[in-house]
Specification:
Length: about 350
């Protein structure tokens, strides 16, 4: 962890603990401005997750873990030895911030397990140490995912990615973009086509920003341009992250991923899903059980702060979809690679 006071965030600084406060790079305003917001209360962290200051499944988990550390400090200062009762409302607030990324619930579960083992004395340092460990482990997992994913790419190629599964979406380095970083270092990535990713434009704003800073060739395209690009025969892989992977290998990710996977199948292009095992939810049998977040239709009815649809127009704004396991060629985790995922293979990975 950094020890200097935070100034301007780099892509690796989605979340940063410094001097008793949590700093989150404000991902709503990148790349126009690179600024931190700082937090010392869990309730504010929950709001930051809901409002997309921090986003991306693993980064949401990391932020929530720091949120629990802040909650513990506040609960002990307010309630002393009764802090375990006092912390409960904040744990629930954090859990209610967004529904789809299971990393949020995984991180809160891990913090809860620690809470159950702690005494009535001040929990602040123990909770912070666990949050720092979750952060560091995610960083390390992404490095491993990057290397394993890069090994699957057998010859130099161009790839398509969707949304942002980069350093900004994780504890650092990135999942899908971690694979891109490792594969690019190995000379295997000729160009990344980044879907712009309506309506939040994570591809246009965040993926393009991250890759350009690393000198990795990136070309932005409208989401609907992917099929005609695939038809040129230049694309070797679609590489994406995930918010939740069910026990049978069905994958929830940013809305539009399912469509990309269908198109990839038609064109004989492989689909790689890169995600840490904290994204795998063995408690649900299939993707049909994954809660899909629906956000405010206003996010879709406008663009760049300007209204684009006629007044009174209805809009649906599901922000994730589920890609069936049958359309996924490889799930790459820090524990290993699952080719053509099935329940048996996912169980073998997770056991
Ligand atoms: O709504 P977001 O920006 O949180 O959605 C993020 C994604 O869909 C990412 O692809 C996913 O979380 C994987 S991030 C490593």
């Amino acid at each position: 962890m950094k020890t200097t006071p935070p100034t301007t965030p780099t892509p690796d600084d989605a979340a940063l603990w410094h001097d008793g406060r949590l700093y989150l790079a404000d991902q709503r305003i990148l790349p126009e401005r690179a600024e931190f917001l700082s937090y010392d209360r869990a309730a504010e962290v929950a709001t930051a997750i809901r409002d997309m200051v921090v986003r991306g499944a693993p980064a949401i988990g990391v932020a929530a873990a720091y949120g629990v550390a802040l909650a513990g400090r506040e609960a002990y200062s307010n309630a002393g030895a009764d802090w375990k009762q006092a912390i409960e409302a904040d744990l629930e607030r954090l859990a209610a911030s967004r529904p789809t990324a299971v990393n949020l619930f995984w991180a809160i579960r891990r913090m809860r397990d620690l809470i159950a083992r702690l005494e009535a004395s001040d929990p602040s340092q123990a909770l912070l140490d666990e949050a720092l460990a979750i952060h560091e482990e995610d960083r390390a997992a992404n490095r491993r995912i990057g290397d394993l994913g890069a090994e699957l790419i057998t010859e130099p190629t161009e790839i398509i990615t969707h949304c942002n599964a980069g350093a900004l979406a994780t504890g650092g380095y990135g999942t899908a973009l971690g694979v891109v970083r490792s594969a690019h270092a190995a000379g295997k990535i000729q160009r990344v086509y980044a879907d712009e990713t309506r309506p939040w434009m994570q591809g246009a704003r965040l993926t393009a920003w991250e890759l350009m800073q690393d000198g990795i060739p990136v070309t932005l395209q409208a989401d609907c341009a992917a099929a005609s690009l695939m038809a040129t025969g230049r694309i070797g892989w679609v590489i994406v992250g995930s918010d939740r992977i069910a026990a049978n290998g069905d994958v929830a990710n940013k809305i539009g991923t399912y469509g990309l996977a269908v198109m990839a199948k038609y064109h004989g292009i492989k689909v790689m899903v890169a995600a840490p095992t904290s994204t795998v939810d063995m408690a649900i049998a299939s993707g049909a059980e994954i809660p899909i977040e629906e956000r405010d239709p206003d996010e879709l009815l406008g663009c760049g702060g300007r209204r684009i649809a006629p007044a009174g127009c209805a809009a649906r704004n599901p922000v994730f979809d589920v890609t069936p396991a049958a359309l996924v060629d490889a799930i790459v985790t820090e524990r290993g690679v699952v080719l053509n995922p099935t329940t048996e293979k996912m169980r073998a990975l997770m056991d």
